Amino acid sequence: MNKKLYDFIVDKKHHSFRHTVDWDLASVYSQNKVAPIERMADRFEKLCKEETPVILEGEKIVFLRTVSNLPDCFTEDEWKDIKSKHYVHELGYMSNLSPNYYDTIGMGLLEKRKTADEYGKRAIDNIIMLSDKYLEEAKKQGREDIVEVLTQVPRYKARNFREALQFFRIIHYALWLEGNYHNTVGRFDKYVYSYLKADMDKGVYTKETALELLEDFFLSFNKDSDIYIGVQQGDNGQSMMLGGVDENGNEVFNELSELCLKASYNNKLIDPKINLRVCKDTPEERYTLASHLTKAGLGFPQYSNDDVVIPALEKLGYEHNDAVNYTVAACWEFIIPNVGGDVANIAAMSYPKAVDTAFRKYLLESKDFDEFFEHTKDEIKSASNEICDNIKDLWFVPSPFMNVVMDCDIYNQGKYNNFGIHGTGISTAADSLAAIKKYVFEEKSISKEEYIKAVNSDFENSPELLHKLRFETPKVGNNDDYADSIVVELLDTFADSLEGKINCRGGKFRAGTGSAMYYLWHANEIGASPDGRRKGEPFGTNFSVSLFADIKSPLTVVASLSKPHFERAINGGPLTLEFHQSLFTDEDSVQKVGMVVKTFIDRGGHQLQLNTVNRETMLDAQLHPENHKQLVVRIWGWSAYFIELDKEYQDHVIARQAYTV
Predict the structure, then answer these.
(1) Phi-psi region of 516 (alpha: psi -120 to 50; beta: other; left: phi over 0)
(2) What is the per-residue DSSP string for 471-492?
(3) CA-CA to 289 of 20 to 30 Å: which in 20, 297, 462, 618?
């Protein structure tokens, strides 16, 4: 590792090269009635010209953002007008796509330019112009190694490992500069390994020197990541997928895959976010190797199960060669590289809200639990219908360079155009239904009127009932079918509610098990819940247990939450487990964590992520943030520096149960 460069980046000293631009481009474009695609092309050209080449001492992978803001292409009034006529997702710019890095790196931009439209050609010309500025700076500094690399890429195809890494950096950088966001890394070891192998066969690199270069490359993801902010700092979408099978069923995990895990472990930075494709045949030692990252407290790797995901995607209509090539979006949603135009996080449905509505409207009139549960299912279906009906005429700002590096006309659509819907708070909903079933309809120990009154008052005058609901009632996560079977039925109902629906782009709607930030947002839409959750308390993140559930062990959680029919809800969304930092005392404990992951995968779980936490450390970090600058935690589908999070997200991680094995 280049320690001097590493410290320079971690200490944010490179921020001194940044400046902002005070350009009111939107007003100028609006006054001149400039077309959206021309606005994107013109802004990109202006930004490329404004960028100043910076080559830091000793760095091997260059390109650093020096313009730290991105003026919008549209005025507020224009956005209002656009939104009055179209459905606009998030920021309205393209996101969560996985472009064809492989072909671009293997062809060069001049070759890609031959088939690009006029706007794509302009984007390529501007990228080459900016690269030439770096080339000239390298000559000034006498950096002949960089001169050699930039003389070749990005004009021409990469000839070796270092040129491939540098080419990737330029593509990735350009996509952000153009205004796209949550630009994923995709199956990095699949499309870059051939360059490394050829160099190692020639004796250009040893494992040690290749690792050192890879550490420099990984460091480049962290140079500008604070500029790429989603909901919170760290939510930037730089997700890298490793392993899995290829189109011929061959295992992709290779020497580069292993080096990536080691580089991430050595750097101990939040980017790139590592994802690992596994299956029933994945060897135990790979889980152990990956669990060393968990021990390091990085919140990754996140695991995806090929045995579940690939058949489920094929069932949804993805061709085999595309399904086996799946990767993840910014967080965990399954997307297809090169040709996928799916919007995998377009909306979210709240299970607890469906229960809450049924509880208030139908509990009194329901004769038995089955009747009440049917009302709850009807509310889920109604919520799903409303979501689907509201998404009409989806519109994105056209992206010329993104169109260059995709194998489809992404201006209009992709080969696949499915919409993913999250499902949030499933354990809160299942625990609530289990409590209603047990106490109202089976034991008849709580009257319907008393129950409704207690929930409406946030259990203010019902302390005994509150304790009973929170700590004495069957909960999801203890391998108890009384509650777990309800999870299975809820997820099936959600899948049923989207079955057969066609979206405005001719695609399908995909049910998912993720929550994103909705574990806070949806929780604030309702008051207390029948499971004893009080008003203002959040749901568990993604596919996880209630925050206050008394859970026996992580193995019972794995048993509980591997029961659903994930093949019917394959948008993505991991089971999330927290392990206490004190667990990782030796190699044996690391192996045990790896076996927890293997157990979930072998039982048919679809996706899993682990967090290493220490409650006392996090509480101290809230009081003394200056002492914990590098403390990393997993939030929902991404990792972040704890002290950079809003307090509500910090508090949620602190509230999660930390397991030992």
Answers:
(1) left
(2) HSS--TTSS-HHHHHHHHHHHH
(3) 618
DSSP bridge partners of 498: none
CA distances from 654 to 330, 531, 534 (A): 24, 21, 17
Same-domain status, 392 and 534: yes
Instruction: Check the CA dihedral 250-604-323-312 and report its sign.
Output: positive
Q: pLDDT category, 608, cuts 50, 70, 90?
A: very high
Count how many domains the chain has: 3
Give the end of a domain, one of 551, 571, 591: 571
Residue 206: how many other CB atoms lie within 10 Å: 10
Nearest alpha-carbon partner for 104 in 341, 408, 406, 413 = 406
DSSP state of 234: T
> Are residues 411 and 353 located together in one domain of the fold?
yes
Instruction: Look at phi and psi of residue 425 and say left if phi exceeds 0, alpha if psi is from -120 to 50, else beta.
Output: left
For residue 201, give every residue at least 6 positions away whose Cβ sits within 8 Å of its Cβ, in sequence order, or none. Answer: none
Domain containing residue 309: 200-332+574-644
Is the domain of 207 the same as that of 170? no
Query: Tens digits of per-residue pLDDT, 483-515?
Result: 999 999 999 999 999 999 999 999 999 999 999
Residue 554's Cβ-count burial label (10 Å; 0-12, 13-18, 19+) is buried
Residue 218 lies in a domain: yes
Of 148, 157, 174, 156, residue with least CA distance to 41? 174
**Helix (DSSP H) and strand (DSSP E) numbers for the chain:** 27, 16
Q: Are the beta carbons of 399 and 180 closer than 8 angstroms?
A: yes
Distance CA 59, CA 65 (A): 15
321, 347: one domain: no
* CA end-to-end span of the chain: 33
Question: Could you write out the DSSP letters of every residue in 324-390?
Answer: TT-EE-SSS-EE-TTTB--EEEEEEEEHHHHHHHHHHHHTTT-SSHHHHHHHHHHHHHHHHHHHHHH
Q: Is 244 found in the same domain as 132?
A: no
Same domain for 50 and 176? yes
Q: What is the pLDDT of residues 410-464, one digit of tens each?
A: 998 999 999 999 999 999 999 999 999 999 999 999 999 999 999 999 999 999 9
307-316 CB burial, b ≥16 within 10 A, e <16: bbbbebbeeb
- The CA-based dihedral angle spanning residues 424, 430, 431, 433, taken in that order and rounded to the nearest 10 degrees: 130
Radius of gyration from C-alpha coordinates of the chain? 25
Q: Is residue 188 part of a domain?
A: no
Domain assignment of residue 192, yes or no: no
End position of a domain, from candidates 525, 544, 571: 571
DSSP assignment string, 503-537: -TTS-BEEE----TTHHHHTGGGS---TTSPPTTP
**What is the C-alpha separation between 554 and 556, in angstroms, rounded?**
5
Do 407 and 540 share a structural domain?
Answer: yes
Is 95 a member of any domain? yes
Strands 302-305 and 607-613: antiparallel
In eight-state DSSP terms, residue 191 is: H
Mean pLDDT (the chain, rounded): 95
Is there a single domain that holds both residue 436 and residue 352?
A: yes
The C-alpha atoms of residue 546 and residue 427 are separated, in whole angstroms, by 6
Decide if 496 contacts 382 (C-beta within 8 A).
no
